[in-house]
Amino acid sequence: MKMNENKKGLIMEKQTITIYDVAREAAVSMATVSRVVNGNPNVKPATRKKVLEVIDRLDYRPNAVARGLASKKTTTVGVIIPDVTNVYFSSLARGIDDVATMYKYNIILANSDGNAQKEIQVLNTLLAKQVDGIIYMGNKISDELRVQFERSKTPIILAGSVDDKEKLGSVHIDYVAAVEEAISDLINHGNKKIAFISGPLNEPINSEYRLKGYKNVLAKNGIEFSSDLVFETDYSYHAGEILWPAIVSAGATAAFVGDDELAAGVLNGAQDAGVEVPADFEIVTSNNSKITEIVRPKLSSITQPLYDIGAVSMRFLTKLMNKEDVIEKTVELPYGYIKRSSTK
Amino acid sequence: MKMNENKKGLIMEKQTITIYDVAREAAVSMATVSRVVNGNPNVKPATRKKVLEVIDRLDYRPNAVARGLASKKTTTVGVIIPDVTNVYFSSLARGIDDVATMYKYNIILANSDGNAQKEIQVLNTLLAKQVDGIIYMGNKISDELRVQFERSKTPIILAGSVDDKEKLGSVHIDYVAAVEEAISDLINHGNKKIAFISGPLNEPINSEYRLKGYKNVLAKNGIEFSSDLVFETDYSYHAGEILWPAIVSAGATAAFVGDDELAAGVLNGAQDAGVEVPADFEIVTSNNSKITEIVRPKLSSITQPLYDIGAVSMRFLTKLMNKEDVIEKTVELPYGYIKRSSTK
DNA sequence: CTGTTAGCGCGTTCAA
DNA sequence: TTGAACGCGCTAACAG
User: Fold this and answer.
1) Would the CB atoms of B290 and A74 count as touching at under 8 Å?
2) DSSP state of B11
3) In terms of CA atoms, which chain A residue is nearest residue B72?
4) How far apart are CA A41 and CA A64, in angstroms?
């Protein structure tokens, strides 16, 4: 056997074994090799065996790039994520990757910081790389991004994110109802002045969903809405920690918080100021991440099946990539509410 | 202009614009288009301009797959990670991705759960996809994986992980010295019986590095080593939480912990048992992740530049992919120690 | 059941 | 400065 040799008979550097080498060694055509590699049943068991032996002996590994060019499918999907470092998103990502692996896909993960410009940049390189599908995570879809999404023939799913325009396929929970349930708990304990603490209100998830839920329950319970009780800040722990004085002056006796780290900040900020939680002040949060159980008292929280949202998104995407018919454009997963020690 | 039309003159579904379309529209050869796309200077400014206009008008986007096949470079690197959900690793991943983006690379992220079998599986699909390089994160390199690594012509770097065999390029801190410093603090406060709490001791980072550092300081300070004070468990919060009784019976008055979640568990477990931290018991931990500041009292910790470790790893990898000479196979980044309230 | 033949879209000589 | 032609490694008809 002499393969990949140059004129001087020396083994060359890039010793890549191709389907052609296998074909020659097994004394069949490359088409046949391709068939056994792709599990095509139209191959006589004997030849299949022979080919497999050669593949094994030569340690042949099909070149996915060539395959992608020929078949126009790369078996990789692009995942746009604001920040892997954020447990909320990484949980989704984990669900995505597991299901992707299950269906023989790989994911290209790209951080966007929720920055519109980066998102577009990333989308373009993803499309250039011919990904078979895209999963988008983020809290705000810019107009330009929306245009690109709609123009693209590549299937796209939003995971744990909402499209207020309701055009794109997405997987998430019923945020409005979830918030209503969480705040109901607070109201049932007699709280009348409940702070609404969230990230930027220009993000639909905060303004169109959570805040709406907040207003809904208040209305249902005959409590007047006051914008003084609405606190817009960023998602960090520190932002919550320094918020306490403002909460006090607003006269709130409880708070709904849209993010766990933020909630941990509020909790510790209150306690550092000598407040008893939940006796003097109650708190509910939104994502049930690990820190809800690490802080003391443990935080009552809305629960979201984050891993599942990611998993279902990816499953959804496989259907689209497979051109299967999907009935509903948006799938809503069940949420829950877990009562811990930050509420009475 | 009539491109991508079928016999009936209808625009076809897959309206992919190729370099060929651009060439025809600009009345040049595809070679020339290729040149301007790749920034080859040997193009007359006038033609370059003309081509760029057409590219813009047609919204042409070079097919990275075809490019990869022709050039044998995919500008994507594979990243093997135990679990994205773990902040320690996702911080590294973030650093990797940022630098990758900076150098026009994308990353394929694959979770391994630190499972030897999955790691090998993942490595193979990564190689099949012709990634230009690989970054490995994990606590234990199985023999088979090591063989595959060494046989592969694809550059590989370990990020935030150690290779006790010292064969592979890697980026990390001096774990031994860091542990020594952290424990010195404990010893300086008069502690004689210090618990060593870590993840699996079959992981070199725990047995070969951290435990060695532990033994070193003890020896330096004339304290006898006792295996009764060594606690091997897994990395979870819960594992730490239930460990307290065992720690008590061992008579420890302080503890070094190899993982933050684990440390948070130990901390809360102790406090739930009525112990005063740090008055009655001191704790230091290892990774300075966010939770060290969220728990009360806040945890004193070794600090590692996680983001930087990821970033430097990727930078390192770009050099290897670029076949540049690298002096040192392993780069050691500076660690630190931050004193908070879990120590006196 | 198997082989032949075209491309897939682009990079890259080699001439011109 | 430009173009023609070949090949990257593989899939997908189409024959046989």
Assistant:
1) no
2) B
3) A65
4) 21
pLDDT, mean of residues B281-291: 95
Q: pLDDT at position B9, please?
A: 33
**Which residues of chain B between 2 and 61 are close to nucleic strand C, CB under 7 A?**
16, 18-20, 30-31, 34-35, 37-38
Query: Which among B62, B66, B108 has CB closest to A76?
Result: B108
Looking at the predicted structure, is the pLDDT value of residue B10 above 70?
A: no
Q: How far is CA A290 from CA A102, A263, A303, B261, B303, in A?
A: 26, 12, 11, 9, 21
Beta carbons within 10 angstroms of residue A37's beta carbon: 17
Strand partners, B182: none
> Tokens 């820190």 correspond to what residue?
A291
Rounded Cα gap, residues B268 and B283, in angstroms: 11
Give the nearest partner residue to B106 out of A61, A68, A110, using CB atoms.
A110
DSSP E strand stretches across chain B? 76-81, 106-111, 133-136, 156-159, 169-173, 194-198, 230-232, 254-257, 282-285, 300-303, 330-333, 336-338
Judged by CB atoms closer than 8 Å, whether chains meet at A90 and B106 is answered as no
- Strand D lies under 7 A from the Cβ of residue A37: yes
- Asked if the model's pLDDT at residue A78 lies above 90, the reply is yes
Name all domains of chain B by residue range, CATH numbers in brackets.
2-62 (1.10.260.40), 75-173+306-335 (3.40.50.2300), 175-303 (3.40.50.2300)
pLDDT at A15: 62
Q: What pLDDT digit, counting tens, does each position of A276-318 carry?
A: 999 999 999 999 998 999 999 999 999 999 999 999 999 999 9
And the tokens for A342? 């930050």
B38 touches strand D (CB under 7 A): no
| Mean pLDDT value of segment B315-344 | 94
The bases of strand D with some atom under 7 A from any protein CB are 1-5, 7-13
Per-residue pLDDT tens for A214-227?
Answer: 999 999 999 999 99
Q: State how far the Cα of B129 lies from the Cα of B324, in Å rounded to an integer.
A: 23
Ramachandran angles phi, psi of B104, nearest 5°: 70, 25
Q: How far is B224 from chain A (nearest CA, A)?
A: 34
CA–CA dist B84, A328 (Å, integer): 30
**Whole-angstrom Cα distance, residue B100 to residue B107?**
7
Sorting pLDDT into bands at 50, 70 and 90, what band is B15? Answer: low
Mean pLDDT of the A237-255 span: 97
